[in-house]
Amino acid sequence: MPTEAPSDGDLCRAFLAGDRQAFGVLVGRYQLPVFAVVRRFASTPEEAKDLTQRAFLQAFEAAQRTLPKLIATAGEVPFKAWVLRIAVNLGKNQARDGARWPLAPVETIDETASSRPQALEALEKAEAEALTRKAVERLPPRQREVFSLRIDAGLPFAEVAEVLGISEGNAKSHFHYAVKRLRDEVRALSATPGGEGP
Amino acid sequence: MTCDDIEGRLIEGDSSAEVNEHLAGCAACRAFADELGVLTAPVSLSAADRAALASLEADTWKAWQQRQARARPSWFGYAAAAACGALVASAGFWTARPVREVVVERVVEAPALVAEAEEPNLGPDEVFFEVTWPDFPEGETP
Ligand SMILES: [Zn+2]
C-alpha cells in the first residue's frame, strides 16, 4: 500500500520540532518553482540561488512565528504560497533595484548545438527568449507577478490567485493582458535594430 | 467559436478537442498558438543554474542554523550583549554630554561672541556698547 506524501503542514510541524529531514523535503519540494521565479529577475545563477535561499529562510521564519498555532492545529499551512509570495517580492525588488539580466544563458545554446541547424534553432530560441525577457521586464508589476507564477512556477490560476491574494478571475484577466502586451512588445522589439526599445 | 474565443482559451492553456479542431482548420490561430509558445516559454535553466540548485538545500540549512544561532544567543552571548549594551550606553552618554554643553555655551556666550565679532574697529580705550531699544512704561512712548 503506497504511503501518502506528508503535507506541508506536517513537514513544517516536524521541522520546527527539530526534524532536519523535513526541512530538506520542503526545500526539495519547492526549490525548482521558487528558483525559476527569481531566475527571471536575477542576472546570474548565484544571484538566483541567493534569492531562493532568502525566500526559504523567510518562509521558515514565517512558520516559526506562527509556531504555537501550527502546533495547536492540524490545519493546513500555506507554505507553498508563502515561499512563492516571498520569491515574487524578492524578484520584484531585484527588478526595481535596476538589476539587469544577460540576454540568454549561454550553456543552453551549447548544450543543444550539436549540429548547424540545431545551433541556429537554439540561437533563434535564445533570441526569442531574450526578447521575451525584456518584454516581461516592461510589464506592469501585477501582470509580471501573475505571468511569472503561471509560467515559471507552473502554477494553475487558482494557485496563482492564492499566492497573490486575488481572485482566480482576476489572475486570468491579468494573464490575458500580460500575454497580449508581451506579444505587442516582442513584435516591437523584434522590429527595432538590436532589439532595444525606447 | 470565433478566433478571439480560441485565442482566449489558448492563453489559458486549454487544449481541448474543440480547440484542436479549430486549430486544424485555422492558420491564423495556429500562428497565434506558435507565437504563444514562444512568449510563454519558461526561463530555461542552464547547467550553471542546475549546479547552483544542487547545493541549495545544504547551503540554506547552514544559513538557517546561522540565523537561529544569531536569534537565540547563548548565555555568553547574552552577557556579551549586555556588556556591549552598557558600553554603548555609556559611550552615548559621554558623547551626548559635550553636545548639550555646546548648545548651552552658545546660548550663554552668544552675545559676547557677537560683540567680539562686531568690534574690530575699536581702540584699546574705547568701549563697545550694545544699542538696544529702551523699555518704556505703557503710555509713555515718546
Ligand atoms: Zn481561428
Low-confidence stretches of chain A: 99-114
Task: Tell me the overall shape of chain A.
Answer: elongated
The CATH class of the largest domain in chain A, by name, is Mainly Alpha
**Unreliable sequence segments of chain B:** 98-142
Q: Tell me, briefly, the overall form of chain B.
A: elongated
* Small molecules bound in the structure, each named once: zinc ion
Give the tally of structural domains of chain A. 2
Structure description:
The complex is a heterodimer of chains A (198) and B (142). Chain A is mainly α. Chain A folds into two domains: 1-100, Rna Polymerase Sigma Factor, Chain: A, CATH 1.10.1740; 110-193, Winged helix-like DNA-binding domain superfamily/Winged helix DNA-binding domain (Arc Repressor Mutant, subunit A), CATH 1.10.10.10. In chain A, 74% of the residues lie in helices and 0% in strands. Chain A contains ten helices and no strands. With 142 residues, chain B is mainly alpha-helical. Chain B has a domain at 3-40. Chain B is built from six helices and no strands. Chain B has helices at residues 3-11, 17-25, 27-39, 47-54, 56-71, 75-117. In chain B, helix 2 crosses helix 3 (27-39). Chain B is elongated, with a radius of gyration of 41 Å. Chains A and B meet through helix 2, helix 3, helix 6, helix 7 and helix 10 of A and helix 3, helix 4 and helix 5 of B. Zinc ion (ZN) is lined by residues 3, 6, 22, 26, 28-29 of chain B.
